[in-house]
Amino acid sequence: MATSSSSSSSSKFTRSVPFTPKRPFSASSDDLTNTGRIPRSTTPSLLGSAKKFKAALSTESRTRHVSKPRPKLASVPGTPTKTDGSSSSGSRPKTPTTPRRGAESPLPFPKMSDMDVSRVDPEEALVDFQTVEPGDISGEIDESALADYGKEDKVLVSIRIRPTNATSAWQVADTTPKSIKLDPQYAKTTANPPQDFRFDEVLTGSENKPVYNAVARSHVCAAMDGYNSVIFAYGQTASGKTFTLTGDEDQPGIIPRAMKDIFAYIRRTPTREYLLRCSYLEIYNEAIHDLLAPPSSSVSQPVQIQGTGANIVLTPLREEVVTSLKGVREVLHRGEGNRRTASTDWNERSSRSHSVFRVVIESRERNSGSGSGSDSAPSGRSTPGFRPPTPGGPRLQAKGGRSVQTSVLSLIDLAGSEKATSDKERTREGKYINTSLLTLGTVIGTLAENSAKNKNDHVPFRNSKLTRMLQPSLSGDARISVICTINPDATATGESTSTLLFAQRIKKVQLNAQKKEIVDTEALLQRYKKEIDELKKRLAEKEANAPTTNRRLSAREQLDESRAMNDLNSRIRQLTKLILTSQTVDETRGDESRPASPTKIDFDMSPYQLQQELLAAHRQMEIQSTQILSLEAALLARPQLSPDAPEGEKDRLLAGQAKTIRELEIVVNGYEDNLGEPLRAVREDVEREWITKLEAEVRRREEKEAWADELVKQLEKEKKTRMKLEDERQALAAFVRKFDALGLGSALPPPSTKLNPPMPTPGGAAAVFAQRQRDRLQLSGFDAPMSTLAETDSPMRLGAGQPSLLEEEWDAVDDVSFGDDKPFLPSALKASSRKQSHSPVRDILRGKENVPM
Ligand SMILES: Nc1ncnc2c1ncn2[C@@H]1O[C@H](COP(=O)(O)OP(=O)(O)OP(=O)(O)O)[C@@H](O)[C@H]1O
């Protein structure tokens, strides 16, 4: 938002923007528009500010600043001459926003507050082409050039580059779409060329008229045509958001131009009449303040957002009815006044808060005076009297078949976007601005992603008041135009780039705004009745001609004809039902005690229709007679006793029934004694017997499991021992082979044969060793090879072909003497028996029950 020169010095918030042209430049706008720069010689005081023009529409500010007489606007061609003030239709309605102090209401309603506008009669506040004064429309708006409301399903995204005294760091190309890119000399890195950003519009200069025409006009017209429209300005502090939206005395911004355009639109639309309501609010520190409510109540009663999804309602929020541009100025002026009152430092506040100006536009066709239905009152302010209050403000009613179109135009000036990224101070305020602008970025990012990738990811609208309020619009229910303002100075390239990235993201959001209409139900009923009459007429004609035409028609054509009559009939029945439903509702409301009649017979029906009705009635009767029969049977089953039977009879019947009850109790008790109790006992016995068995089973299973675990552990241990022995055996074998290789493998000679050199044994020491192993096994009674033994002996299988030394004792293996006459048997047997007696597995197995050893 804008800066005030007076307060800027005191503000701790220093603005990087020195450029604040307040007065019209002597340079022509052409000088500025193309380059976005202002010649130094023409630049006015740098300390001037647009902030004081924030309420540029206020009549007060206008009289204060404008010395020259207001230019007289040429009347719009085709504008009917205004009738004099005495005529009720021509007299200009007073904007009902002026406080009516002390006015006593003649009606039995409680006295309304000074600012209560909820009881304004909407019929008295209507605006139409006759009531708009030439001064209320903008002479600057090019009426002939009505845009096409922008791209219907895309957000209209434009960039506005604020003029600068320094050299702009941005280059603008006048292509289609318009593009903007950073001057390479200001790029941080020269590795990649600067990104070329493309948008619907890239605007430069200080002229607000082309900006309005390019970015806002289409959306204002769309709002007048029944579409919700949102125009918001996003950008760094002092980049020109407020200048663009509000403008100043010489360059009115989008808000004043939009209001003028609204009245111009009304003036050139003689077929419709309008009810305009304005609201003005501010979101500051995540609280919504109603700027039109008295300051005390706006603090004590902050505005709440209610509802979900597309049905968001702001409450309590004042909506002021306006009938002229003067009324709009007053509303804006009051809102600005309240906003300033609430802040100690206006600049800080304005750049840290979001302001939202909303216009609710309701319209319906003007009554042609043809007297359709009961509504023959002339259009406009003819309905006298006082209305009961409507929440939020008066509403236009759908009348005499004229449906009401409702739309909202929202004009939003956001807080400075750099707060979302660089506000280091962790103040409450900074945090809240961060929250709402960061959430806006996230929401737009997710929406863009969802549209681009056809996804349905959660969009965090609820994370901030701003996004929650904008939810219906951002969800696609509005035409959106975003104007992103950038400061072209080289010092601000980072912030400007992030603004351009935001703009690029929002471009991808998909929209699907629809017109909203409230239909007049009375008129709808009238239309149904008319259609029924026409259909009946056609049906009657067909039936009358049927005898003659049927003779000429083929069988197929006759069938078609009969089908057509059937169709007519069913449509008549359908419409009649719709009418009857609404009448039935009215009847039941009117007299609760009287049941609504299920059907109404129209005696104007054709014979065919009556026949159908008769058949349906017959079917209904059959169903009902079956029901009657079953009810009669039920009645007969009841004990016979007339209501006027003597008391004694009744007592007897009661006694009889009491007896039956007792008998039934006896039966129930008998069942319990004879069957219930014994059955329970049997069940308990069975349970008891089986519980012990079950417990024993469980115990056994647990023991076996423990034994199996132990067994596995022992086998593991045994396997390790085997591996170790195998390693040692291999070492020994290697030693023996080496021994042989040295020629020492012959049987040792007897000590006496020293002279005869020993002859090597055929096959060497290895052969001797192998032979000894075989002999040993044979002697122990094992024929199977060792490896087989190992496999069968142990529940833990070793790899096939793995040599086994399980049965071997180290001292046996240790016997490496090569004398084949040395008896081997005793040692082997001894080892074998010793091994058996010490086997840990056997020890465990022995300890187990039921395991044969
Ligand atoms: N296009 C422009 N032509 C001439 N002056 C401009 C333009 N844009 C901005 N300015 C001037 O720059 C100053 C800052 O602009 P403005 O107050 O609109 O910024 P802002 O983005 O609204 O800042 P904040 O975030 O604080 O509200 C004002 O004095 C305004 O007059």
Automatic annotation (TrEMBL):
GO molecular function: ATP binding; microtubule binding; microtubule motor activity
Region feature (Disordered): 1-114, 362-403, 543-565, 583-602, 827-853
Gene Ontology biological process: microtubule-based movement; mitotic cell cycle
Pfam families, per the entry: Kinesin (PF00225)
Binding site for ATP: 235-242
SMART domains: KISc
Signal peptide interval: none
Domain Kinesin motor, residue spans: 154-509
Annotated GO CC locations: microtubule
Biased composition (Basic and acidic residues): 554-564, 840-853
Amino acid composition bias (Low complexity), ranges on this chain: 1-11, 373-385
Composition-biased stretches (Polar residues): 26-46, 78-98
Keyword terms, alphabetized: ATP-binding, Coiled coil, Microtubule, Motor protein, Nucleotide-binding
Family stated for the protein in its record: Belongs to the TRAFAC class myosin-kinesin ATPase superfamily. Kinesin family.
PANTHER family: CENTROMERE PROTEIN E, CENTROMERE-ASSOCIATED PROTEIN E
Protein name: Kinesin-like protein
